[in-house]
Design brief:
21 helices, 55 strands, 29% helix, 26% strand
């Protein structure tokens, strides 16, 4: 059998280590990763290897030659012009593959039993076998579901946290029959997970998953790169060690001198031709490459040191990574997580602080303290985007420096000269962040239409309207900055596409890639972006607002509405609109105060709102929140209507006005919606529990009259694609007037459905295993994995939904049914199941 070793990647997430090396040549335990892979193949009697190359191919060719020095025979296939993807590069070498062949990526450290996988492949008569392993937190990998016969039934490449339905992930190791390549075109970019495997599933080609035992770690990121090597020292992975074990847990290369006063703790690796000076302390889990000199009194705690480095006297290294040829001066400190690129020079008594990255060939002056990455800027986060955008503590995580770079990263994904809107709430911290974002956008040649302080529905409507206009003002997207609706100490930065909808996950990944890779375009002076204050925004919103309403119904309504704006910027907009239509509206807390309200303070205001409605004999009351996107109703009796009841009530009112229409709701909403829809001859579409999924569905599906939920807000697609509490209030006045109904009477007619929800704290790393456990313990014909795992009894609308939170270490449990006792008992049962699993996971992890 032949193997294809894919070694074409540049390893951007391992920079600055990969500036001069392809990723498979980055050293692990003092040998290139690719050498460990070749040793693994040889141990399993696979000695004919085809290596596909793209980035710096000569580095790999010069090191391995024809493979004879490593006990194998190597062929090379170079993708000279462009990378063809994981499957495309294999397609281009199919003429020399022969029969069954194995594909393995060049960026993992593993001792998986390839022989066992090959036997499994042959026993099953498979055309394709994906080697799987179980990962606690699989969002960075391809997740795979297999049935009892191990046949692949579904997979999802790099799911979001709420989409995780298993912890069995694709290792990038495949056993394939040549005929599967017939589904690909030559010289065409293609990926196994995104292109080939979906076709095999669609054509019912026998494709199996082999859940491998043993160790596997994708070392494509710096933290996993370090951890994999520490695991090797702990004996978790079987490797061919480059040096003899001179004493238990200590491997030392030839011609290395160690001063008798030096102290070395096991496990540790010290390469060949090294010199370890007097009083040097080397702690456990330290790795030292070849030809390294360490001065007297140096203290090394778990660093990974490349070949040819020179460490000065009394230097201190702490769990850092040094590429080849780095010089660290006397008394200098390189602290936890720092990475120094090849041939960089740290001056005497300088300090490189934790997680700082230094590009190759850089000079750090003596006594300097380096707090930021040299070339790369601030510390890179694992992911920028949460469920609704970029969020973090105000002026701690979301700083002006961070915002400038974020704006530049977003702008770099757009064409030079493009226009975007920037808007914000009225808080000073939001003004600071938005101006920093504008600076970053300008620096990459993006023009800005500055909407300044305005409600988020207005910002969405402006983008949507400008997209449809044929004049010179057209925009391709927008940014809105506001205090987080649920965290008064945090900022939320949301990005919109040219429809005013939150951008897709694909676009988020592009922005993250530009941010992390520092792939930022720099405009020339003549191309710097311009900023214009967009003054037509309110007129656009007002005109559309009026066009979409029956103004006569509102003007002649006998209703009296009490609106609490909780000191938000929407308070400057809706009173004007309602007064223009002659609506009798009593306004509370509409001043643009700087105060930020806690959840308890908003609850106090809601209680006060109920008293005011009753005292004034109002038709209903509304509390507007989330910067104009969300609302809570209060009926004429002062009773709050929110959450699932609010969703059902809104569906009832809208479908009464528009019978036969389609409503779009998230997956966790109760089955009362289906009952209401059936009454009115309508349709219901459930989506993932994300705002973007709801907005997308409302735009794509025909005849949608309402979308959203009480928790997220409501969308009226004929107005604009986003959530809008202000338009919702005006539309409610219109519909209730025409239907001559009160909220309390409508509330009494809602279907009687029992519905419970509960949230449990769950470690991020346990979510995948929990979802797999739920899937494995229930019959597949009763399962829906649209979002989370839903267990459904189709006969009587009973269901249980286990939904991982996309932004927090939480798992949500929802139970829906027509019997209160069943709902209560089922909730207790599943709460206990989830808690038991999490507790067992924690005990195993400890």
């Amino acid at each position: 059998m032949r193997a294809v070793l894919m070694a074409g990647g540049s390893g951007t997430r391992l920079r600055p280590l990969t500036c001069e090396l392809p990723k498979p040549m980055v050293p692990a335990i003092d040998r290139p990763i690719a050498e460990h892979i070749i040793n693994l193949l040889r141990r399993h009697q696979i000695t004919e290897i085809i290596i596909t190359l793209h980035y710096l191919p000569e580095v790999i060719q010069n090191y391995f030659g024809d493979g004879s020095d490593f006990g194998v025979k190597i062929h090379y296939a170079i993708e000279a012009e462009r990378a063809l993807g994981t499957a495309g590069c294999v397609k281009n070498v199919e003429e020399i593959l022969g029969g069954t062949f194995l594909v393995i990526s060049g960026d993992s450290l593993t001792d998986i039993d390839l022989t066992g996988a090959i036997e499994f492949h042959r026993q099953k008569g498979a055309k394709a076998t994906i080697i799987l392993t179980q990962i606690p937190y699989p969002v960075d990998f391809g997740v795979v579901i297999i049935d009892e016969d191990k046949r692949v039934r579904r997979f999802l490449e790099k799911p979001s946290a709420s989409e995780v339905f298993s912890d069995a992930v694709n290792t990038g190791i495949y056993i394939l029959e040549p005929e599967v390549l017939d589904y690909l075109h030559p010289d065409t970019e293609a990926d196994f997970s995104q292109d080939l495997f979906p076709q095999l599933l669609a054509h019912d080609v026998p494709m199996y998953g082999y859940v491998a035992k043993g160790y596997w770690c994708d070392i494509g990121q710096l933290d996993t790169y370090r951890e994999a090597q520490y695991d090797a020292l702990r004996g978790k992975v079987k490797l061919d060690w480059p040096f003899p074990e001179t004493s238990p847990g200590i491997w030392i290369g030839a011609n290395t001198y160690i001063d008798p006063s030096a102290q070395i703790e096991a496990p540790a690796v010290i390469g060949a031709n090294c010199k370890i000076g007097a009083r040097v302390k080397i702690s456990a889990e330290t790795i030292v490459g070849d030809n390294v000199a360490i001065g007297a009194g140096a203290n090394l705690k778990r660093p990974i040191i490349g070949s040819g480095c020179i460490i000065g006297e009394d230097a201190q290294l702490r769990a850092c990574v040094l590429a080849r040829g780095v010089r660290v001066g006397r008394g200098a400190q390189v602290l936890e997580g720092a990475v120094l690129g090849a041939l960089s020079n740290v001056g005497e008594e300088a300090q490189i602080n934790p997680n700082v990255r230094v590009w190759p060939n850089k000079e750090i002056e003596p006594l300097a303290v380096l707090n930021i990455n040299l070339i790369w800027g601030q510390i890179a986060h694992r992911n920028l985007f949460a469920q609704r955008g970029v969020q973090g503590l105000a002026n701690i995580d979301i700083t002006p420096e961070f915002a400038v770079k974020l704006g530049a990263a977003y702008g770099s994904t757009l064409k030079p000269g493009s226009q975007v809107t920037v808007s914000r709430d009225q808080r000073n911290v939001s003004r600071m962040v938005s101006r920093s974002l504008i600076a970053g956008l300008m620096s990459v040649g993006i023009n800005i239409q500055d909407l300044e302080a305005t409600a988020i529905p207005v910002a969405r409507k402006i983008i949507y309207s400008l997209r449809q206009r044929q004049d010179e003002v057209t925009v391709v997207g927008g940014i809105h900055v506001r205090l987080h609706p649920d965290r008064m100490d945090s900022i939320l930065v949301e990005f919109f596409d040219d429809r005013g909808i939150n951008i897709s996950t694909t676009q988020e990944k592009k922005i993250e890639s530009a941010y992390f890779k520092e792939d930022l375009r720099r405009a020339r002076i003549s191309e710097i972006g311009d900023v214009n204050r967009f003054s037509q925004g309110m007129e656009i919103y007002k005109a559309a607002f009026q066009k979409q309403l029956n103004i006569d119904a509102i003007r002649h309504a006998s209703s009296k509405v009490v609106v609490d704006y909780v000191y938000a910027v929407s308070g400057a907009i809706l009173p004007i609109l309602l007064s223009k239509f002659g609506c009798d509206a009593v306004v509370l807390n509409a001043s643009l105060s700087q105060m930020s309200l806690t959840a308890n303070e908003r609850e106090v205001l809601l209680n006060q709102l109920g008293h005011v409605v009753v005292a004034l004999k109002g038709s209903f009351g509304v509390q507007v929140s989330a910067h104009g996107e969300q609302l809570i109703l209060v009926d004429e009796e002062g009773v709050p209507i929110r959450g699932d009841m609010l969703t059902a009530l809104m569906v009832q009112i809208v479908l009464t006005a528009y019978p036969g229409g389609t409503v779009v709701v998230p997956v966790q909403v109760s089955s009362a919606i289906e009952q209401i829809v059936r009454r009115h001859g309508g349709k219901v579409k459930r989506t993932k529990a994300s705002p973007t999924a709801l907005m997308e569905a409302c735009q794509q599906l025909p005849n949608v009259v309402l979308g959203g939920s009480g928790e997220m807000g409501f969308i009226f697609p004929e107005f604009h694609p986003g959530f809008d509490a202000m338009f919702c209030i005006a539309k409610l006045i219109e519909m209730l007037t025409r239907q001559e109904r009160s909220l309390s009477s409508l509330r009494a007619e809602l279907p009687r459905v029992f519905y419970r929800s509960h949230s449990i704290r769950c470690p991020w790393t346990a979510k995948g295993g929990l979802m797999r456990h739920i899937l494995e313990t229930h019959q597949p014909e009763y399962l829906d994995t649209e979002d989370g795992v839903k267990i459904i009894n189709y006969q009587d609308d009973r269901w249980i939904l286990i939904l991982p939170d996309a932004g927090e270490p939480l798992v949500h449990i929802y139970v829906n049914g027509n019997d209160r006792n069943w709902v209560d008992e089922t909730m207790r049962e599943y709460r206990q199941q989830v808690q038991d699993f999490i507790e067992q996971y924690r005990q195993t992890s400890d």
